[in-house]
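Preliminary data (for renewal application), 2P0 complex.
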Amino acid sequence: MKPSPNLGPIGRAAAFAPSNIALTKYWGKRNSRINLPLSSSISVTLSELGSFTIVEPQADLRQDVMLVDDKPLDDAGLVKVRRVLDEIRAMSGSSLYAGLRSVNTVAAAQGMASSASAFAALATAASAAYGLRLDSAALSRLARTGSGSASRSIDGGYVLWQRGEKDDGSDSFATQRFAADHWPMRILIAHASGGRKSVSSTLGMAQSKTDSLLFRSWIERCDHDVVALENAIENKDFSTFADLVEGNALAMHGTMLAGQPALLYWRPVTLAVIAAVRELRKDGAECCFTIDAGASVVILCSPQDARPVSEVLSEIDGIEQVIQTRIGPGARLVEAPGGLPHA
Ligand code: 2P0
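Predicted structure:
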């Protein structure tokens, strides 16, 4: 790629990016090198929970180095980080390596997508550090090459990640469809106690694609759900919204279960939360659930129902804590603190 004509100075930059929760899921790739999905997906961007990342290009470094939550990033993580940085270096015309430091406020590998906020923060901070001034579509594409779901954390509110058609991924990026205040909703994360998930999303979705009898119909269902859900959000139709959000998540887990080997992320507590949410809805609360690649459950609910719903969920055996948050803005540059960004 040619250097951008619109270059700013190279130097330390920092960004915060929030995590996001998919309302219709990304589970299946058409290109696993640059994370091109087989279906579009819709998400909400979380306020508060996410990743803070500092990037500093430095002349004395012989390779990129990164600390995540004060520990050196493992080799698999570094490969993905370098993929994003190499693309940025190609655009900026700089060959400098960078020191990076990231702090997460989301629980990694518990079914909460820490890679979404991590790579959105990386793309935002690193492009500024290398002097690039990129629009949100370009940042979303960059974040996507690190981790698919990260493409949805660049913008805030209700976000649509278009699967795109092109082999180079230029038309596969996410954009805001509705601002957070279009339909303010509370998000409750019912955090299941227990260890890390055993199979990563990256591996799990590859397995489902090759091994699940239901995979083809799963992708067809997503194509339908994305269109229908965008309409439900536009019309603030909670009943349709709840059916689509729950149905899409259950279909994704059904697809995993139909794999050989079957992939099961749930624990008994997962079913207990599902039952409680359905009971609460029957009793008139506006709430519905979704589940990612883990045992924890995320509940979308109206602001007035958030507290009573949260109280019921907190009482369930096996729920460690219920975190309440809301829909918020996307990734942004922030003031970089002093001190070297790497040890
Ligand atoms: C989603 N998940 O739409 C779905 C639902 C998990 C379950 O996006 O391989 O960590 O890095 O592109 O982004 C998790 O997938 O996977 C994910 P990669 P990523 O939120």
